[in-house]
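Allow me, if you will, to draw on your knowledge of protein folds for a short while. I have a record of one protein: its chain in single-letter code and its fold written as discrete structure tokens. Could you please explain, in whatever detail you think fit, how the structure tokens follow from the sequence? The record follows directly beneath this note:
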Amino acid sequence: MSVNALLDGLLSYVCLLILLTFHEFAHAWVAWKRGDDTAYNLGRVSLNPIVHMEVIGTVVLPLAVVFLSAANSGLANFIIGWGRPVPVNLNNLRHPRFDDTLIALAGPAMNFVLAGLIVSLARGFELAGQPQMVDVAIRMAAISLLLCFFNLLPIPPLDGSHVLKNFTQMSYETYFRMAQYGFIIVILAIQVPQVRGLIRDATFGSLLLFARLVGLGMGG
């Protein structure tokens, strides 16, 4: 096991934890503003990462990826991570389908905006002659964009599935039946080269676009 690869993976994990916290906060905040105080009453409208962590999805599996990747194990490709889902009571929303779509998109939108801000910060580090900090910022922006586009996959329980559900007027009963097998479908989907390629292209295409907008030197 490579020590450098392990440290590198742990740095990525810390970045993931921060970005996941903002992602879940955005869901909870928009739900609160659209009339549902369920998450607010549970303390989820918070930037405290602990309230958004789920033991298996946020700690065990992501750290397993770190250690397996450091050991060059192919099993790392079959593991994903997630935060504690933000509870939403649709009965409290003023316009359930519209508001549910806004709540679902809030997380990916937060990650997209954060990526732009972090790339701008990377440009500041570049001007200050801090190449190591530039590398850290670029990595964090890439992870943020990865979270954005991964969560837009239209597979329950990912955010994109809520958009699909509401756009097609799918019944809630049908959606919840599909969601029972959601994580299995997600794990299978990300093993499909075309799906991984789509997420990768969206992630690094957006990263390069942000870099060009702020004048950050990146190969493209």
Notes: The first helix runs from residue 3 to 33. The chain has one domain: 3-214. Residues 3-214 form one domain.
